[in-house]
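=== RUN LOG ===
request id: a7f3
mode: sequence -> structure
chains: 1
length: 197
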Amino acid sequence: MADYHFVYKDVEDLEDDLDDDRFLQEYRRKRLAEMKKVVKMAKFGSIIPISGSDFLHEVSQAPPDVWVVVILYKDGYPECGVLMQCLEELATMYPATKFVKIISTDCIPNYPDRNLPTVLVYNNGAGKANYVGLHTFGRRCTPEGVAMVLCQSDPVLNDGQNEGEASREAVLEGVRKRFIEKVISQHENDDDGSSSD
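=== RESULT ===
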């Protein structure tokens, strides 16, 4: 009878091991699916420099589910630098949106410098919006202000977590929250500085 006890115990141990294996296989499958989704969505994360010959492939022929934000710029223009800093921050925050930069005259020959910086927004091979000059992003150009303008009518910015209108609403809510936090922080810093006078 003692032999049956050992056999029964061995069978129980094998069943436990089998359950553990099933659990680990299921966990591994789910984790791989999550990782694939993150890799698929986190395609970009920075501003990609392109040339005129790259424009068709990188912008017009981008996949239909990818929004492309193009900045036309020239080195040495402070306004371009200000907007570029905002877009660099947005590119890291919204890695499923493709950000590219191109020297204005490489993209459009004889493009007037007075129109710099210019932002073009593309989706599904078509131009969806354009913003000429820094003033189109508000009196003080901030990443939050640029994000609000870009998402006014379309879900341009995508963090890779949501899609379509849900993405647009999530981005706008996040931008509003960060803007309020920034204003409060600046106000608190102003209060700290004025009390030392």
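=== NOTES ===
The CA atoms of residues 33 and 115 lie 45 Å apart.
The chain has six helices and five strands.
=== END ===
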